[in-house]
């Protein structure tokens, strides 16, 4: 079995993401539960949207993990983005004004979008068919905000945020 650059990128993404979870998720009970809720919620959201954009022919993933199961990027939809969303919610600036909350979300969306642009241009991991980078940025922004609203709602009876 030969390892292409794309397979190496996928492997590195798994290792870095797993290490980030291990290193930066606080070990207290509240943070662990909040991380789980954010992670599982975002898995549900990205799995549905990921399947839709592929089925509608907007994006393709020429190299993906499960050839016969589906055509999405399992690594991004099921693991990497939900973990990033977990950090987004754990470290959210809850006591700041909306201006800071907006820029906090922008600072999460922009690097992810830039990385996707690079991957789309130089690898076979993603291909835009009827898609553009700004759709990625917009959907990231919206899904981050949706996850934040869900976390606030879920913990509304226990949390003052």
From TrEMBL:
Keyword Transmembrane helix carried by entry: yes
Transmembrane feature ranges: 6-25, 37-59, 71-91, 98-119, 125-144
Source superkingdom: Bacteria
Keywords on record: Membrane, Transmembrane, Transmembrane helix
Name under which the protein is recorded: Uncharacterized protein
Naturally occurring in which organism (per UniProt): Sporomusa malonica
Lineage: Bacteria, Bacillati, Bacillota, Negativicutes, Selenomonadales
